[in-house]
Specification:
Elements: E1 2-5, E2 13-16, E3 56-61, H1 66-77, E4 80-86, H2 89-99, E5 103-107, H3 113-120, E6 128-131, H4 147-182, E7 185-190, H5 203-222, E8 228-235, H6 242-246, H7 251-256, H8 266-277, E9 287-290
Helix pairs in contact: 1-8, 3-4, 4-5
This protein binds NADP nicotinamide-adenine-dinucleotide phosphate.
């Protein structure tokens, strides 16, 4: 018997007969596809982007915008049912509604352990968890000019650690039994080029993403022998709300990040995520570094006049 989550804020488990989609039958929002806990054989496996009824449940954190929303959409296109989580309930519900009946949403704050537990409640089997929630706050030097600035900066560092590092660990902890139960779990962590390189002003964010990358590698060692694949996707510049958040809603400053370049889109990253999780069960895509052509490193970007 598969057990998967009910609607939006309802955290009670909902049982579904084996072989069904896992959503409440007869509900207006029941998806048209069916899902199961096992990956089809390589011969039967459809190409990425091909709807397939057997892929199962994918959980995506930080799905109210950007890479998370695009990944949820792409995963549904590839045949998964999806459970979406983020803090902005209105945005999240709109994304889920736009994707259609294969998508469900629940509120989620990955910096809050109780919220992560409630988000995962009732999910006893799932194939994919995309740990995407996170982001950057500010672009300030490690040594701040004043004591007040240093205090504010420490608060931002704490949030970046909570969201990008501890948030990943909490999410994995909450879903690991369900991933193992599926027989072929896949954990995707969206780190960044900032998880492997540094740049001036990025100390808090690059430290957090380096730590997230270390957590990924540690999980790969600790889960060796379990039916779980650990996948890191490390993008360069992606045109999302990332910079708007980083610069406290300053749209002009955020837009300047992408001026004169052609950054990646959220859909580009979503395609990489979907490709990685749809390889045959014996193939573990360890890490994908995805750059725009206009970017050579975390700090080298080609800009046209
Ligand atoms: N854009 C880039 O250039 C880039 C490059 C490399 C890596 N990344 C990484 O990619 C991931 C997605 O970012 P994005 O570019 O798509 O930016 P985005 O559009 O700002 O999306 C960030 C998502 O994370 C969610 N989120 C933030 N804090 C959260 C929390 N505490 N709990 C739950 N959800 C939370 C946000 O939703 P709510 O605000 O509704 O909670 C939103 O859905 C992040 O981890 C980011 O660090 C981005």
């Amino acid at each position: 018997m598969a057990v998967v989550p009910a609607d939006a804020s309802d955290t009670a488990p909902v049982s579904a007969p084996a072989g069904s989609s896992g959503f409440p039958s007869g509900s207006a929002a029941s998806p048209a596809t069916e899902s199961s806990a096992t990956e089809p054989s390589a011969a039967a496996r459809p190409a990425v982007g091909t709807a397939d009824a057997r892929r199962g449940l994918a959980v995506v954190t930080g799905a109210s915008s950007g890479i998370g929303a695009a990944s949820a959409r792409a995963l549904v296109d590839a045949g998964f049912d999806v459970l979406l989580g983020a803090r902005r309930a209105d945005r999240l519900a709109a994304v889920a509604a736009d994707i259609g009946p294969a998508a469900r949403s629940r509120p989620l704050d990955v910096t809050d352990a109780a919220s992560v537990q409630a988000f995962a409640a009732g999910v006893t089997s799932c194939e994919v968890v995309v740990c995407n929630a996170g982001g950057a706050l500010g672009l300030a030097p490690v040594v701040a000019a004043t004591a007040a600035a240093a205090e504010a900066e420490e608060e931002r560092w704490r949030w970046m650690w909570e969201a990008n590092v501890a948030g990943v660990a909490r999410t994995v902890r909450a879903f690991l039994p369900a991933l193992v139960a599926s027989g072929d779990g896949r954990i995707v962590v969206i780190t960044s080029v900032a998880g492997h390189q540094v740049y001036p002003g990025g100390g808090g964010y690059t430290a957090a993403k380096h730590a997230a990358a270390a957590v990924v590698q540690t999980l790969r060692l600790e889960l060796l022998g379990q039916p779980v694949r650990i996948i890191e996707v490390a993008p360069g510049m992606v045109d999302t709300e990332f910079s708007l958040v980083r610069f406290d809603g300053d749209a002009e400053r955020a837009a300047a990040v992408y001026t004169g370049t052609v950054p990646l889109t959220a859909a580009d990253v979503a395609e990489a995520v979907t490709w990685a999780v749809t390889r045959p069960p014996h193939v573990a895509v360890a890490r994908i570094d995805l750059f725009p052509r206009d970017q050579a490193s975390a700090r080298d970007v080609h800009r046209r006049p």
